[in-house]
Amino acid sequence: MEAVLSTVKGLLPDGVRQQLQQTIDGGLPEAAHQLPAELLTPEGLVLVAIISLVVGVLLLRLIVGGTGGSKRGSTVVLAGPPNSGKTTLFFQLKDGSLHNGVVASMGDNAAAVTLRPARGGAKTAQLLDVPGHHSMRHRLEAVLKDAVAVVFLVDAVEVTPHRTEAADMLYEVLTHPAMQRSRTPILVACNKMDLEMEAHSVDFIRKTLERQLDAMRKTRTAAIGKDAGGGAAPLGPVDKPFSFAGLRNKVVLAEASAKAGRLDDVVAFICSNA
Fold first, then answer.
1. 197 alpha-carbon distance from chain centroid
2. Inter-CA distances, 224 with 178, 206, 231, 236, 260, Å
3. Which pTM does this prediction carry?
4. Is the pLDDT of residue 195 over 80?
5. What is the spatial distance between Cα 48 and Cα 80, in angstroms, rounded to a whole number?
């Protein structure tokens, strides 16, 4: 037992170890005699010290680490298919410019930006523009775990011919385990709404994406059932037609025009979630 006591005491902080040894050697204060007899032995005092140390460590982890795995990250991720306007949006939010004509990027764009919503004070947010090219899909999957919110851009003019591409990428975002675990909010920004005669309505885009996602879910669920996939979280109740309203994540759709700088809803969303 002496060897055990020596080992345990060696793990304790100096102050705790000294007080414990003094108590063992010199006796207990009067109030301590009210404790159960089992705790008044050297072994009992060591047990109390160990319990106190464990409780202290757990409290420190709660204070420093927060909620652990369910805690969201700190980055607002800009995602979407190629040519949906992500990089234009990034630079509009960053400095209000069109960056001398933006072309599709093949690398991340990141910056801390200060946004001023129509209501409320200014807010600083960390933005990350991730390329939409299919070869960069692994990059998007990697950064979603650190997302506090996602702005997913859809081309409101070309949504019909590119609905499969848009829905496929959105499916990956919605079923990402970290996104579902943290219930990360998502804004589907219907871009290019300044082209009023050509752009589809937000309601049309919502219904188009929901139908496409529903079809995708059925196909992928069947494939997973045949061991052809796995790892992704389920996308809403499978016994009902897919709808954004049925997801655990908050998903909202809104008008936007990155090129024209009409971004009130985007700015409000970022400021309320960053």
1. 36
2. 19, 26, 9, 15, 43
3. 0.70
4. yes
5. 56
